[in-house]
Amino acid sequence: MLSDDEKKTLRSAEKSRNSTCAFADLIASACISKYRNIRGKNELLKETGNTVIAGILIENSESNSQPELVALASGTKHGHKNPGIKDLHAEVLVRRAFNRYIADRILKNQNDKKNIQNLKVHFYVSSAPCGNACIRRWANPKKENWLDCPALPEDNHSTFYGFAKKEGQLALTVKKEHLFSSSSLELNEERTEKNLKNLSLPSGILPYKSYPDLILSCSDKFLIWNCVGLTKIPLVQWLPKVFISSLTVGRKFARPHLSRAVCCRMANKFPNVSHPILLCSAVKLDEGGLDAEEGAKFDEQNYVFIWSEGREIEILFSKNGLRYPDNSLSCYSTEVIMNDLHDVTPVEINIMNDSIDLKHSLKNYLISVTLQFFIFAYSLILELNKYLFLRN
Ligand SMILES: [Zn+2]
Ligand SMILES: [Zn+2]
Q1: Which residues, in sequence order, are CB contacts of 390 under 8 Å at separation 6+?
Q2: Ligand (nearest to CA of 88)
Q3: Is-contact 226 266, C-beta < 8 A?
Q4: pLDDT score at 211
Q5: How many angstroms does the Cα of residue 55 sit away from the middle of ligand 1?
Q6: Fewest beta carbons less than 10 Å away: which of 81, 143, 274, 337?
Q7: pTM of the predicted model, to two decimals?
Q8: Could you tell me the distance, in angstroms and rounded to a whole number, from the CA of residue 212 to the centre of ligand 2?
Q9: CA pair distance 386, 389, nearest whole angstrom
Q10: From ligand 1's centre to the CA of 391, what distance in Å?
Q11: Ligand 2: distance of its center to the CA of 29 in Å?
Q12: Where is the chain membrane-spanning (predicted)?
């Protein structure tokens, strides 16, 4: 007989779920099989256990060819004081890999810019992005129904009503650091956690207001990408702007939470926000081993990888974001890509200014709604204290 603990470890790591359509499974399978291939060949990655992976596939808008995988990464760690890449969450790394890929294409042929601008970009992440997409409030997700269509389905995001701004429905969040190096941050963390206990932020996430110098959650980063494009701001003077056409998620997919987090919460303020088609895939990244509720093992991952089409995979240390084994700067870092692009003719310069202005106004708007959330949160806590005091 198996003990309860043994049964628990035998259970599949991922809960079963419905796929939205065959297209979502095609995207997920392409990423997962490449990941298994990379992991199978690399001893360092074999040790890392359960993780999150993200991939980007491209498709020419006109042709009927299959989407092609051009970028892939794994990772769940981050450190705002890393000397190398700071944010090592898979979806953030894969966006870097995608920037590297389009930079390499332009380095090969500058006339490729027009083709790149017309690409359809399909983004896959094996688990819902951290932050707002993981807050299970303000809506009830329905079970996904299988849609029998071979190609990318249409998806209209329903009108979003930001009725709970003061509860943090639109607010920014940051990634909690696993090891705080300064004692002031530790103290601050204690205070925040105690005060905001009743506001049910997902684990691993802190309110932006307390830590504006930390790294934004992946939900907030997706929101910004859907407003200004996937091209990194320092690179927009050389690379064309590209937007996400579809976003496929594996674990923890919940349509109303995902659409709120990655695009719809900005729709009233920025009507031009791009709404990617949201898909769920039942194809599992991890077929067994770990308990369903346990998910990714954040503390066991010493290495992450990043890969883009035409390049070798790079392994990075999770602890500092530098390249294994010599602690050098990754060729996926913005500095290196910028350096490589130096002799390339810039794209019209106003694209750069547009993006930077937009990014600033986006951030200011989000900070103001985050502030409203805090004023509300603190008044709620005061009320709660009063109530408890009277009861005693
Ligand atoms: Zn994340
Ligand atoms: Zn939307």
Answers
A1: none
A2: 1
A3: yes
A4: 73
A5: 14
A6: 143
A7: 0.87
A8: 26
A9: 5
A10: 41
A11: 25
A12: 365-384
- Give the chain's end-to-end CA distance (angstroms, integer): 50
Ion ligand 2 nearby residues (CB, 5 A): 157, 259, 263-264, 275
Tell me whether strands 76-78 and 87-89 are parallel, antiparallel or unpaired: antiparallel
Ligand 1 is an ion; its neighbours by CB within 5 Å are 89, 130, 218
For ligand 2, the distance from its centroid to the CA atom of residue 222, given in whole angstroms, is: 11
Residues (pLDDT < 50) of the chain are 1-2, 6-12, 179-187, 191, 194-195, 197-198, 289-299, 391-392
Q: What is the gyration radius of the CA atoms in the chain, in angstroms?
A: 21
Residue 67: count of CB within 10 angstroms of its CB:
20
Closest CA to 212 of 235, 240, 192: 192
Ligand nearest to the CA of 220: 1
Could you tell me the distance, in angstroms and rounded to a whole number, from the CA of residue 43 to the centre of ligand 2?
Answer: 40
Structure-block tokens of residue 359: 């990014």
Per-residue pLDDT of 308-342, as tens digits, reads 999 999 999 999 999 999 999 999 999 999 999 99
CA of 261 to the centre of ligand 2 (A): 8
State in Å: Cα 224 to ligand 2 middle: 12
Please give the pLDDT value at position 362: 80
